[in-house]
Design goal:
about 700 residues; about 5% helix; mainly beta; 22-stranded antiparallel beta barrel
């Protein structure tokens, strides 16, 4: 089925059909739906936010969203001197990091591994690359399965970046620069300029050079992101966005393991080839959004996005180690992907006596085209693997790309429709919604010529209840599901087995409480259960076949406190308890085995205290309990604590200095892994000095 050529028409017709009768009834109502412009350059809004709109696609306060949401505001990201998404997520409870093969963002959210559950302004951003933050106003992590809002995947949750937008009235210029003790540095600019009445442009740009304690590690990033906003009257706004991100760096796969833990004594040693181990990624993302209010109670938005990702990386990879040697192998891989997405949402609010209703109806259609190739490598002696003596600097025969290992082309077409009702009875709010997805994946294995086409049609419900004993307190419970086709979250190729298997299913049950202690201090606590079924496993009776026997469960508790505790003290605290295991026995492991990279305890704390109008101090810590590097449970990553600190000096209203110290106590720790033999050591103490200029 090939539906994408008609998706723009489908979106327009569906939204028009939904809007027409309502617009006729409401066209004469007064009002302005557009929110006040917020200029983020140099503005300090604090660590807490009240905006929960991403969780419902409606203007819903965060306290009334029936799921756990963690938000990292721009101010917190700035105070921690964070420029990459993967670094920001270290302070998010319930999220652990995968090494991501040294070339991409890859995370576990509530124990569910993903490379694709990333979003940009609510639209899917699923390519494999490192996501920068130079053009981001905040990062949102929405926990638990929720396909009703986001579609396929998102079993443990999703990560959404909210873009900086142009301010229509106030010109501003911000410049930043910083350098650290490893020689890494960054430069960025943020310029906002009104162009005419109701029209403004903004451009964010960044240049960064990478460095850390690992031998041979280096790289650079270039990013440019202009945006234009135009208010076409009081009720209509058009926004256009474009992003160019160019990332080139050494592909670092970390350390092998030995005796059930990370190989010790070689934390700075590079287990790769400095020439072959390169990752190059170029992303172009263009987006156009229209917002229009027919009245105070009826609004519509339509967004179209095109993204082009060109990626290539090479690896020499640690495979195993003894007390005196290391064995390495490797490969190279390239991916070219284009994503096209059209999404439209209609929101209608109405009152029926004492009951307030918010109705969301939306459609989404997309096409994704992917060309992927993977090649073997050989070393100078012609072998595909090599064993070398352990040393601070390994002597590795030169590696080169050789024969093709796999190659494929794929086309993914999706068409979705969803509807959600929010009923507010005052002390009780009810949420109910359902989404229909038609998911058509056609792939060709260009090595052996095998072609397959699979169509899945799935309904994804969501239901929730919020009890409001006071306006400042909500007690919530929710149920939601999600699904993931058996081709995995990157959808590169189907084989004879995956073309016939039903999608994986995720079911999330969650209950908790949210409390706005003050308008700028927000607390959340929740318990949850996440069941995953239809997970693939090798058939023990016939290893050539794959069967649907895998089931797993993660249960946990999460608590957080974020915001301004005192007039001069703001903080972000989080804790998560996670308990997860396989529920069925398969070749992946016996029932009862603990899931990969699922620490039982996680805790994070960050606080900033301003001693005066010109001087402030920051202090933070991250704790992560011990965890298994993979589901084999053969290699354990030890628990660890990292302490960070900062100092802030406002020399004037226009100039500021910032000092950040990461790993203040110089702890030895292992922050992430990708299987049992790609373990990433954390950096020793590092110091970064930054300068900020506002004109």
């Amino acid at each position: 089925m090939r539906l994408f050529p008609n998706t723009a028409i489908l979106a327009s017709v569906a939204l028009g059909a939904l809007a027409a009768p309502l617009a006729a009834a409401e066209a004469d109502a007064p009002g302005d739906y557009l929110p006040d412009d917020i200029l983020v350059i140099g503005k300090r809004d604090g660590y807490a936010t009240t905006d929960g709109s991403t969780g419902t696609k409606t203007q819903t306060p965060l306290i009334d969203v029936p799921q756990t949401v963690t938000v990292l505001t721009e101010e917190q990201l700035d105070d921690q001197a964070t420029t990459q998404l993967v670094d920001a997520l270290r302070y998010v409870p319930g999220v652990t990091l995968d090494t991501g093969e040294g070339h991409r963002d890859q995370v576990f959210i509530r124990g569910q591994l993903t490379t694709a559950d990333f979003y940009l302004d609510g639209l899917r951003d699923d390519a494999e690359y490192y996501r920068p933050l130079y053009n981001v106003a905040r990062v949102e992590v929405l926990k638990g399965a929720n396909a009703m809002i986001f579609g396929r995947g998102g079993g443990g949750g999703v990560i959404n970046r909210v873009s900086k937008t142009a301010n229509l009235t106030d010109p501003a210029l911000g410049l930043e620069g910083g350098v650290d003790s490893f020689g890494a540095f960054s430069l960025s600019a943020d310029v906002n300029q009104p162009l005419a009445d109701g029209v403004a442009a903004r451009i964010n740009a960044a240049y960064e050079e990478f460095g850390n304690a690992r031998d041979f590690y280096e790289g650079r990033f270039i990013g440019v992101s202009p945006t234009i906003s135009a208010a076409l009257g009081e009720r209509t706004r058009v926004s256009a966005f474009y992003t160019y991100d160019d990332d080139s760096r050494v592909t670092d796969r970390g350390l092998p393991s030995l005796d059930g833990g990370p190989l010790r004594g070689y934390d700075r040693t590079f287990f790769g080839d400095p020439v072959l181990n390169r990752s190059d990624s170029v992303a172009h993302i263009a987006r156009l959004r229209l917002d229009h209010a027919f009245s105070d109670s009826l609004s519509v938005n339509v967004t179209g996005q095109f993204a082009d990702h060109d990626k290539f990386y090479g690896n020499v990879v640690p495979a195993s180690a003894t007390a005196t040697t290391a064995t390495l192998n490797g490969y190279t891989s390239g991916t070219d992907r284009q994503n096209r997405i059209v999404q439209g949402n209609l929101v209608w609010t109405a009152a029926f006596g004492a009951v307030e209703s918010t109705l969301l109806a939306g459609v989404e259609a997309s096409r994704q085209d992917t060309v992927a190739e993977r090649y073997n490598i050989a070393f100078a002696n012609g072998a595909t693997s090599v064993t070398v003596p352990l040393a601070r600097v390994l002597t590795i025969p030169a590696a080169r790309q050789t024969t093709i290992q796999r190659a494929s082309t794929s086309r993914l077409d999706t068409v979705s429709g969803y509807i959600q009702e929010q009923l507010d009875f005052g002390p009780v709010q009810l949420f109910a919604g359902v989404r229909y997805d038609e998911f058509d994946l056609a792939t060709v294995n260009t090595v052996n010529g095998f072609a397959a086409d699979r169509i899945d049609r799935k309904w994804s419900p969501r239901a929730g209840i919020v009890l409001k004993p006071t306006e400042a307190v909500s007690v919530f419970a929710g149920y939601a599901t999600s699904f993931l086709p058996q081709s995995g979250d990157q959808f590169s190729v189907l084989d004879a087995t995956t073309a016939s298997l039903a999608p994986e299913k995720f079911e999330n049950l969650e209950a908790g409480v949210k409390w706005a202690l003050t308008p700028t201090l927000f607390a959340t606590a929740a318990v949850f259960r996440l069941d995953r079924s239809n997970t693939r496993a090798v058939d023990p009776a016939n290893p050539a076949l794959t069967v649907l026997t895998g089931k797993s469960r993660v249960e946990g508790f999460e608590a957080s406190l974020v915001g301004r505790i005192l007039p001069d003290l703001q903080a972000s605290f989080g804790y998560t308890f996670l308990d997860g295991e396989l529920l069925t026995t398969s070749t992946a492991g016996p029932a009862g085995r603990r899931q990969a990279q699922l620490p039982r305890h996680q805790a994070s704390a960050w606080a900033r205290y301003d001693l005066s109008d010109r001087f402030g101090l920051g202090l933070g810590a991250v704790y992560q309990g011990e965890q298994f590097a993979s589901v084999s449970n053969a290699v354990t990553l030890p628990d660890w604590v990292r302490v960070d600190a900062a100092a802030f000096f406002d020399l004037s209203d226009r100039f500021a200095l910032q000092l950040n110290v990461e790993n203040l106590l110089d702890a030895t720790y292992y922050s992430s892994a990708h299987g049992d033999n790609n373990i990433q050591p954390g950096d020793p103490i590092s110091i970064r000095l930054g300068v900020k200029v506002k004109l």
